[in-house]
Amino acid sequence: MSRSPLLVGSRLQLINQLVYFDEEKTNFLNHYFPENNHKRSAFERILSDYTSTLEKIVADLNEDRLNSVALIGSRLELRYVNEDWIESFTIVFPQHADPNHNLISFLSPMGIQLLMSQINETYQLAVPSGVISVKVEGIKYVNSGDIT
Question: Do 114 and 100 form a contact (C-beta atoms < 8 A)?
Fold first, then answer.
């Protein structure tokens, strides 16, 4: 069975993410969460859930599965429920973040809350001005999950 170039490239990026978080987890945590506190512990749990999600997707990779959950490298289309406004952005590693090009870090407040979100689900996001309700209307893995 032949796989599409998109799936082959996506599989490679997802495996690279798994290897990175396996081999560099301590360095990553020390860099972004230098204090051993509640915030670091909470992120360690998120990272554990994320790598478990990646393992399941890689084990049975297909386009529907790849585009059903928000990963590092996924473009999300969000509908702001109360404003009926749609915004698209891609979740990326911190070094690739560029809000002017709708690239947000998975460590940003919005990125971390939407990591592993699922299509057609509504989420309450904590933002500086309060809480906003968003519906994930679309997810597409766009091969922006490069760790380098």
Answer: no
Q: Which residues pair with 74 in a beta bridge?
A: 141
- How far apart CA 126 and CA 96 sit, in angstroms, is 23
Measured CA distances, 46 to 4, 49, 73, 74 (Å): 30, 5, 17, 17
Q: Output the six-digit token pair for 89.
A: 């952005």
Q: What is the pTM of this model?
A: 0.90
pLDDT tens track for 75-120: 999 999 988 899 999 999 999 999 999 999 999 999 999 999 999 9
Longest distance between any two alpha carbons in the chain, whole Å: 51
Residue 92, strand partner residues: 105
- Beta-strand runs (E) in 20-129: 74-80, 85-92, 103-105, 122-127
* Cα dihedral 130, 41, 31, 55 sign: negative
